[in-house]
Specification:
7 strands, seven-stranded mixed sheet, 40% helix, binds S-adenosylmethionine, single chain, 17% strand
């Protein structure tokens, strides 16, 4: 615990500017082309997959496999398919959008992302793949969507809604832009059920990693908020045991200097069952990781 507190304080001391900045865009500019802080490769390796999520490590033992497996968890929850007009918010470098087109044959994807640098790079990636006309990416916020009512069949948020100011405002916007019978699906960090009050270190870490305090509730409250807005068929699965232990081991390898390509983690069923590594996430208080899906009534 003590080591983890020191880690949080170190992160705050090394990058105090993040405490003063209201937008997560500055954080994602700093991360650059790598999910691990301080490992920005300046986009030199054009073959590097540009995922920025924690990954789903049930079977996967490398980061690109785990990140894609998490995108599959979300794609399955959204029931993505070839007739979908999808709105994908917080798309990072659009790695998930290319993956969903390949895996599910999604008809059309519109993306909204608050980090202009990511949008610019992603637009170039769309062009390189000849996907203009099928993937359309914009700078903007998930909490203020510039689209008409009932414009989309599906809305997805892959590991980003915890940043939104607020997540609940995004739920309202998602409900508005979905057509009747459409579906919202999220992969998201939350509080665990039954956890106590946030500590000072939690609050400092949340500020450093751009998570508004208003988003700090558990999956039961998450469900209530979706239902209060009008969503039905709300489904939730906690996948935290398949997220935290794997990504903590991956971070440890990378911080020893192993490259993304060479990092292969070892992870036993016992470590998964005990959710090893969860201590690190206790810093922020975001100790649950959930997949939600919810439908707009017909
Ligand atoms: C953890 S990254 C996940 C990126 C991507 N989904 C992935 O899995 O690789 C979070 C993303 O959310 C975006 N983001 C944060 N706040 C946002 C907002 N209010 N509206 C839209 N995007 C936002 C960030 O720019 C970043 O791309």
């Amino acid at each position: 615990m003590f080591v983890n507190v020191l880690r949080a304080l170190e992160a705050v001391i090394l990058t105090p500017k993040f405490l003063l900045n209201p937008s997560p865009a500055s954080y994602y500019e700093y991360l650059g082309d790598d999910v691990i802080e301080g490992q920005h490769g300046k986009f030199v390796d054009t073959k590097k997959p540009l995922w920025l999520n924690l990954g789903y490590w049930k079977v996967a033992r490398t980061y690109p496999e785990a990140a894609a497996a998490l995108a599959t968890q979300l794609g399955d929850a959204a029931a993505l398919g070839p007739s979908d007009a999808l709105l994908d918010v917080g798309f990072g470098f659009a790695e998930q959008d290319f993956f969903w087109i390949e895996r599910y044959g999604v008809k059309h994807i519109t993306g909204v992302n608050i980090t202009a640098m990511q949008v610019e790079r992603s637009q170039a990636r769309v062009k390189d793949r000849g996907l203009e006309g099928r993937v359309e990416l914009h700078v903007g916020s998930a909490t203020k969507l510039e689209f008409g009512d009932a414009s989309f069949d599906k809305v997805t948020a892959l590991e980003c809604a915890h940043h939104f100011d607020t997540r609940e405002q995004f739920f309202r916007e998602a409900f508005r832009v979905l057509r009747s019978g459409g579906r919202l699906a999220t992969a998201d960090g939350t509080r665990s059920v039954g956890e106590g009050k946030l500590t000072f270190i939690n609050k400092l870490s949340l500020k450093r990693w751009f998570v508004p305090l208003a988003n700090m509730y558990d999956r039961d409250e998450y469900r209530r908020k979706l239902e209060a807005i009008g969503f039905v068929n709300v489904r939730c699965e906690s996948i935290r045991n398949y997220v935290f232990p794997g990504v903590v081991k991956y971070h440890a390898l990378r911080n020893k200097g192993v490259t993304m390509q060479d990092a292969v983690i070892e992870l036993s069923q016992d470590e998964i069952d005990r959710c090893v590594g969860i201590e690190l996430w206790k810093l922020t208080g975001l100790t649950d990781y959930v997949i939600f899906s919810a439908d707009k009534p017909l």
